[in-house]
Amino acid sequence: MISNWSTSAGRTVRTVRGTSAPMTYGLITLCCLIFVLGPASGLNPAYGTGDALVAAQRAYFRHWGVIPAELFDGPAREALTPATALFVHGSWVHLLGNMLFLYVFGAMTEERMGRVRFTLFYIGCGYLALIGYAAANAASQQSLVGASGAISAVLGAFLYLFPDARVTSLLPFLFFLPLRFPAWVVLPFWAALQWLAASQPTEGPGVAYLAHLVGFTLGFLYAWVWSGRTTKVRAAPAPAPEGENQP
Questions:
Q1: Active-site option among 143, 148, 152, 169
Q2: pLDDT attached to residue 112
Q3: Contact, 136 vs 40, CB < 8 A?
Q4: Which of 47, 81, 199, 207 fits a disulfide with 56 by CB distance 3.0 to 4.6 angstroms?
């Protein structure tokens, strides 16, 4: 049994080393590991249960997440929170939805940009997306966590770089039938949904749709400026199906 496990582990390591998108899979692994070890997963007994677990979760999110009201007027360490918040997620649904989108769209984008450029792009756009949300909600005391802004930037870049790539979508109003559409149809539709959701008044914590829009716009503009209009890839297959969850 040990021998079989070692052989499987060795194959997995060789596969990861040989992939053309190691940073995408590394980011997914890191986010999942941080979530499992943190209090939000409910799997780490060090954080207790019941009220103690809830208190630990709140403290964890306030420490590592972005609090708009404190970002611009608080201590200097608050300037780091838009970066740390990218690797923290609030629930299993939040984590899995974001990682699904990163898995679907991240690999091809990384292959096109290159490992170092993609990593800096991901973190930089994610940071600015959270800054943009915080600036628009400067009085908010709610903690903001998640990689949504960075992943939205990946979607924006994907749209410019691979506009004709076929993306499998599950549409709830069509009984979740898997249908394939080009990226230039799916991703603008997704962005329009984010804009509509961001324009609706909300009370209390919720989804940071504005951060999605900022990230998506930054990603598209970055790909446009970096790649240039004459170097777009007009057709490429999407590597995996897209679910209905939004980052």
A1: 148
A2: 94
A3: no
A4: 47
